[in-house]
Amino acid sequence: MNIVDTESLLSVPLTIKSHNGCNIGTATGFFWRKSDGKTYLVSNYHNFSGNHFSTGASMYKDSAFPAKIDYPRFIPQQSLHERQIHSITLCDEAGNDPVWKMHPIHDTRKIDIAIVEVPTIADDQTYVCAVNDEPLRECDKQLQRYRPGFELMISGFLLKDRPTGYFPIHIRGFVASEMDALYHGKPAFLMDAHTSSGMSGSPVFATGLEQVEPGKKFSPFKLVPPFVGIYSGRIIEHENGIKRELQVGIVWRRQLILETVEYST
Known about the structure:
The protein is mainly β. It contains two helices and twelve strands.
């Protein structure tokens, strides 16, 4: 493989396992580098806890809960197709003493974000790429407010059999609500996109800035589109006993991830 877009290296597939090792779900995650050099896996609160962030209801049957998560890491001097799988123990066998952390200020069931620390360089020398690594931090300098209709991209793993291997599928969508209007009073906005459950926890990028002037082949955002936030999944409505998933999903803004990581101990 000669050319890989940067954003294809930032998302990782997550395999969620119960305390007895059974696979109970899949999701997407990505990494954030703390100012002190520590590295954190970022995904949704509901992926780590097994509970819906708003209602608190369990998302699994038969009293199952997420106890471990498997994720891939890059192997030095190996093809990008080759990855080493690492496992994170999320809690004890009874589901207590979780190692993951939530936002330090907002109520648990208001923000669908959670983090867990992972090795920056593991004992086997494997490593990960973070969405705020250099030169990706250039996105911090860009405007983080986009008008309704602005084009965004979700990079995640919506198919359980992962036909694209460790490389995510990129889904195009659009800003569907005013960013500064918030979402239930929290720093989030709505996004119009065709997604599935495996996309929860995916990073969202602002690809609408990708414009090339006539006669030129390069755009300053062509290689690294700004990171906007984390996708939380589609909104579900219940009416007359009928469940309906809307085409509109929630994106929690990047400032919440920064706060969750930097304020963690």
